[in-house]
Amino acid sequence: MGCCRLGSKSKEEVMAGTVLRFGLALTGAGRSCFGCCIGRGAPPVLVLSVRVLRLLPAAPAEQREVADLGALHAPAEPLVPRRAFGPVLAAEAGPGPLQADQVEFPFGRRLPCDIYWHGVSFHDNYIFSGQVNKFPGMTEMVRKVTLSRAVRTMQDLFPVEYNFYPRSWILPEEFPLFVTEVRMMKESDPSWKPTFIVKPDGGCQGDGIYLIKDPNDVRLAGSLQSRPAVVQEYICKPLLVDKLKFDIRLYVLLKSLEPLEIYIAKDGLSRFCTEPYQEPTLKNLHQVFMHLTNYSLNVHSGNFIHSDNVNTGSKRTFSSILCRLSSRGADVKKVWSDIISLVIKTIIALTPELKVYYQSDIPAGKPGPTCFQILGFDILLMKNLKPMLLEVNANPSMRIEHEQELSPGVFENVPSPVDEEVKVAVIRDTLRLVDPQKKKRKDIQSQTSEHVSETREDLLDAGPAGGPEYETSKNTEAGLPSLCLKQVFPKYAKQFNYLRLVDRVAALFIRFLGVKGTTKLGPTGFRTFIRNCKLSNSNFSMASVDILYIDITRRWNSMGIDHKESGMCLQAFVEAFFCLAQKKYKSLPLHEQVASLIDFCEYHLAALDEKRLLCGRGVVERRGAVVTCPTDGLEVPALHAPLLNRTAAAGKFADCRSHHHPGAVSPGAGRD
Ligand code: ADP
Q1: Out of 70, 139, 174, 643, which could bridge 46 as a Cys pair, Cβ 3.0 to 4.6 Å?
Q2: Residue 474 φ/ψ, nearest 5 degrees
Q3: Which helix (H) or strand (E) holds 402?
Q4: How far apart are CA 608 and CA 509, in angstroms?
Q5: Among candidates 630, 259, 596, which has minimal Cα distance to 604?
Q6: Does 378 sit in the ligand 1 pocket, CB within 6 Å?
Q7: Dihedral of CA 344/350/355/358: which sign?
Q8: Which of 168, 209, 314 most suits a substitution to test ligand 1, by most atoms within 8 Å of the C-beta?
Q9: Alpha-carbon torsion (213, 216, 217, 222), positive or negative
Q10: How, if at all, do strands 67-69 and 48-50 pair?
Q11: For ligand 1, what atom is nearest to the CA of residue 294?
């Protein structure tokens, strides 16, 4: 879809008229899906239809309309207004003939819209305001290799907190490491008989995935060079239901990056294998219907059951599984709180790079738009009920129908109640949450969201049907179904903020990027970072700084990640930063070293900002000081420090320390 306009009427009308009354079951022309690009020649294109039929079966017939929301990129021919749908939901139809029950964009195609709903990615040069349903860079960030790297960085810092992601190696570059590590682990534990799963980067729907027992069975020839892959420890003991392996698809709304706002849908899908599970052996490794839970694969098995009931069949609601577990005495609150924690931690791993992409596409000072995005989290429950992250999908299918073969070669789309139950609510509530009218009530709302929970018990209480904002939504939107999307961040921020170290490293990186629109740091930017943060000294000369820059940048660029721009990418900068932290604060654990160095840098930069501010105001001159204030690469000599009003800088420093990890060390504690 291109765009839709919400909010031309009062909020109640929007909610009742559009989101609720018209529900949102989603049908792109001819493909019955939402959130997936419908080609028809023009990017980004129409994906959304709105209809009332399923959500409110009792709705009068005249309300049972379908409104297609169309492409932002207009077809050449002018639009002819056909039928007023009311200003509540104005839509621009995509290229191709309009159908009788479609509505058209009544205000002209180039008028700015409140919400732009893109099929695949953020990119669109003509959006300057409103909200876009995709973040720049998200598709790249959740690719298997990038996600594995981002999580690995967090695992280096916080191994226990990030043990929800299977041990992974990136191929081809880490193949030797993979072989060596596996050999060493086997030597130290001869009873360990692992299985590995090889997943091509950028693949989906089980495409190209295979299981191996021996590292040397990786198919290295040819394809890996052109298409890297992730090899991962295979989780051999998944939780089984009806003797079948299944995974969970959970929908997560990333509503905002800065400040971070995350919502999780209180129900998801459970997608089942179609052959009874057995632990992997050389004999059954190739049986995809036993080991891979992908719907797109299993639907082709003769055993796949399309059910009208959300509790049975090969695709069920996650809540039906939780009910079943609960009846067997399992602690489902704990399962749910572990899942929330997994989601928040994963997003914390993704945000640093997302921020780099964001400032590149929407540099500070450029008028809008803002972004939000629905993500699909694929999670596997282990036998002991521990959730493990399999992958994150930037463009999860919102299809609510499935194909049925009526006779050989003749297919028909039929409704899928389980998909509808889960997905309609996700779309409906996403629109409720990004409703532009809602911004007007932000003050009231922020009071609720600022209620940050402090205790572990709060997270444990976060069952799929609990939580204070659940009640609030009920009250303020009387008559509407309760929100299925549950805020988890900033609600639980206090429990997770200490993990956000790389975010702060990314903020330093962005500060020194210099040129607007770039994502890579040049050598001058890196030198300025070192100088401004006072990281160079007699043990670490500027020549060593240049060597560090060249070594790390060259290595990252040789991995073939992004050759479009030259320079140091964020991951390379993070690696350099970790090196510097280890050098400066030798005996601490890595996360404390990094936290200490961040504090140190932020402290010096705050002092520098303060000094620049004073220079700007001419305070220094008024005091008759001899200091001049260069605009760039400024170093404040210690001698002149008393000239500055350091209170604000120190206050800022204390403030930032209080938000971060308790183990953080003051700048003075640095050991060179
Ligand atoms: P795709 O994007 O191709 O679906 P996934 O990473 O989701 O790739 O993997 C496909 C399927 O393989 C998953 O749905 C899951 O059933 C299985 N799978 C993936 N990784 C693992 C793992 N580490 N352990 C066990 N099963 C896995």
Answers
A1: 70
A2: -60, -40
A3: strand 401-407
A4: 16
A5: 596
A6: yes
A7: negative
A8: 209
A9: positive
A10: antiparallel
A11: 14
Which helix (H) or strand (E) segment holds residue 297: the answer is helix 295-298
- Closest CA to ligand 1's atom 12: 292
Q: What is the Cα–Cα distance from 654 to 181, expressed in whole angstroms? A: 42
The rounded distance, in Å, linking the Cα atoms of 177 and 169 is: 8
C-beta of 166 in contact with ligand 1 (< 6 A): yes
- Residue 608 to residue 634: CA distance in whole angstroms: 7
Q: Which residues contact 291 (CB under 8 A, 6 or more apart)?
A: 211, 245, 273, 277, 280, 284, 285
Separation of alpha carbons 309 and 319, rounded Å: 13
Residues 104, 107, 112, 115, CA torsion sign: negative
The first and second tokens of residue 159, run together, are 């191994």
In 3-state terms, what secondary structure has residue 130? coil
Residue 211: per-residue pLDDT? 97
Residue with tokens 């040789």: 558
**Can you tell me the distance from the alpha carbon of 601 to that of 608, in angstroms, rounded to the nearest whole number?**
10
What gap in Å lies between CA 362 and CA 502, rounded to an integer? 21
- Residue 90 confidence (pLDDT): 28
- Give the integer Cα–Cα distance in Å for 649 and 638: 15
> Is the Cβ–Cβ distance between 406 and 264 less than 8 Å?
no
Of 241, 249, 250, 291, the residue nearest 271 (C-alpha)? 249
Residues of the chain with pLDDT under 70: 1-112, 124-126, 221-226, 438-480, 560-564, 618-672
Q: Please tell me the distance between residue 364's alpha carbon and the centre of ligand 1 in angstroms.
A: 38
Distant-in-sequence, close-in-space partners of 256: CB < 8 Å, separation ≥ 6: 370, 371, 372
Spatial separation of the C-alpha atoms in residues 206 and 172, rounded to whole Å: 20
Strands 261-265 and 485-489: antiparallel
Instruction: Please tell me the pTM assigned to this model.
Output: 0.78
Tokens of 629: 């204030």
* Residue-level pLDDT at 439: 63
* Cβ 140 vs Cβ 357: under 8 Å: yes
Look at residue 413 and give its three-state secondary structure.
Answer: strand
d(CA 623, CA 611): 13
Q: What is the pLDDT of residue 628?
A: 39
DSSP 483: P
SS3 annotation, 315-375: EEEHHHHHHHHHHCCCCHHHHHHHHHHHHHHHHHHHHHHHHHHHHHHCCCCCCCCEECEEE
Q: Which residue has 């996360």 as its token pair?
A: 591
- Two structure tokens written together for 6: 């919400």
pLDDT of residue 436: 77
Q: How far is the CA of 234 from the centre of ligand 1 (A)?
A: 9
Q: How far apart are CA 39 and CA 18, in angstroms?
A: 26
Locate the DSSP E strands across 172-225: 196-200, 210-212
pLDDT for the residue 560: 65
Q: What is the CB neighbour count within 10 angstroms for residue 163?
A: 12
- Nearest residue (by CA) to ligand 1, atom 17, is 292
For every residue of 571-618, which 3-state class applies, written as one string?
A: HHHHHHHHHHHHHHCCCCCHHHHHHHHHHHHHHHHHHHHHHHHHHHHC
Q: Are strands 131-132 and 115-116 parallel, antiparallel or unpaired?
A: parallel
For the chain, the distance separating the N- and C-terminal CA atoms, rounded to the nearest angstrom, is 56
Q: Is 234 in the pocket of ligand 1 (CB under 6 A)?
A: yes
**% of the chain beyond a pLDDT of 90:** 49
Report CA(389)–ligand 1 centroid distance (Å): 9
Contacts of 365 (CB under 8 A, 6+ apart): none
Return d(Cα 271, Cα 19) in angstroms, integer. Answer: 28
